[in-house]
């Protein structure tokens, strides 16, 4: 290890003792029971529930008061963890919050935040098991019409990896002043009896307010964002205040997309949402057929955020020497991923569609 590498390695503490009091093996969170259990001796214990209601779920945090807003460079920062079970030293990416010792398998839950990062304040725990995730995958791939039959029959997921990924959620009160043009269509008949559509245009302006609740933004750059969107939504209301007990037995990572960049992305997406909402408002209020030249400016007030750890099952399967990855939502079981495509099946679908269009056109012309 170079001197520079040594400077980048930080000694960190463990937040949670994952040792089974019965047999000294590693205990882990069990999605089937919602308890901590030992896979070796069967020992189970409840996770302590706070007495105060506000301590049971993740609380909204004041965006303006957040001190650490920047991104976190996981490619540079490293940390070393000493295993409580076998005393082995392991170097991890600084983003990792939970993993198991590669030497003895002991579940390790490390500190949730570093000196220059925020700590998660909520977690949505796993609600489905790896077996249920595998069953959902089998149903998902069998429903892929363009996937070759051989792939459906042979696709067996590799061992599942349960991962808690970091997300930001944002609440904001939006107030938007807008101006736009709207048009109403009318049919005009000329002297020869031919008809055409003309549009009468009018100007309008107004004010639109909407409260945005728990707008979700992924805080990791490690995974395919398009695939992650396929397994949304998550049940964000079913969250719990962060406890290290919930992540034991699973991989988990802290954010690499910081609070400020997360909010910037959220504002862009919220702007697109507001554009669609204001357009619908104008169409409804003015009985308009079309809306154009929409211009608006938005003020955001009372911005709050939550930093949540959300559960995902990761796996892959091999078909014709190619690896296809997929994800399963750890709460809902929704599956998203890649699957092989059969060119023959696609060609058949296109041909059948063209035949159907030709038949409909034929009967239409005949009448």
TrEMBL record:
Keywords: Membrane, Transmembrane, Transmembrane helix
Domain of life: Bacteria
Transmembrane segments: 344-364
Keyword set includes Membrane: yes
PANTHER family attached to this UniProt entry: FLOTILLIN BAND_7_5 DOMAIN PROTEIN, J DOMAIN-CONTAINING PROTEIN
Name the UniProt record assigns to this protein: Replication restart DNA helicase PriA
Organism field: Lysinibacillus agricola
Organism taxonomic ancestry: Bacteria, Bacillati, Bacillota, Bacilli, Bacillales
């Amino acid at each position: 290890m170079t001197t520079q590498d040594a400077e980048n390695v930080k000694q960190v503490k463990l937040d949670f003792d994952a040792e089974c009091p019965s047999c000294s093996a590693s205990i882990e969170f069990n999605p089937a029971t919602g308890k901590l259990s030992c896979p070796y001796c069967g020992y189970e214990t409840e996770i302590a529930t706070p007495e105060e209601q506000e301590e049971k779920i993740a609380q909204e945090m004041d965006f303006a008061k957040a001190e650490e807003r920047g991104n976190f460079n996981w490619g540079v920062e490293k940390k070393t963890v000493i295993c409580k079970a076998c005393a082995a030293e392991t170097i991890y990416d600084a983003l990792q919050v939970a993993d198991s010792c590669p030497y003895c398998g002991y579940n390790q839950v490390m500190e949730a935040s570093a000196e220059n990062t925020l700590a998660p304040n909520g977690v949505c725990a796993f609600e489905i098991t790896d077996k249920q995730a595998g069953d959902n995958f089998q149903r998902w791939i069998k429903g892929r019409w363009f996937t070759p039959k051989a792939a459906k029959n042979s696709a067996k997921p590799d061992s599942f990896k349960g991962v808690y990924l970091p997300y930001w959620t944002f609440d904001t009160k939006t107030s938007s002043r807008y101006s736009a043009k709207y048009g109403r269509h009318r049919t005009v008949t000329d002297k020869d009896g031919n008809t055409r559509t003309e549009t009468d245009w009018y100007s309008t302006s107004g004010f639109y307010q909407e409260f945005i609740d728990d707008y979700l933004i992924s805080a990791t750059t490690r995974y395919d964002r398009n695939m992650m969107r396929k397994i949304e939504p998550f049940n964000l209301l079913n969250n719990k205040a962060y406890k290290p007990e919930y992540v034991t037995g699973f991989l988990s990572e802290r954010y690499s997309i910081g609070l400020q960049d997360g909010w910037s992305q959220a504002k862009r997406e919220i702007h697109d949402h507001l554009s669609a909402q204001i357009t619908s408002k104008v169409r409804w209020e003015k009985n308009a057929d079309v809306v154009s030249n929409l211009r608006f400016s938005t003020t955001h007030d009372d911005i709050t955020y939550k930093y949540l750890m959300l559960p995902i099952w990761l796996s892959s399967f091999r078909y014709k020497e190619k690896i296809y990855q997929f994800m399963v939502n750890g709460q809902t079981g929704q599956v998203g991923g890649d699957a092989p495509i059969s060119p023959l099946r696609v060609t058949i679908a296109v041909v059948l569609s063209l035949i159907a269009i030709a038949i409909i056109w034929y009967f239409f012309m005949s009448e």
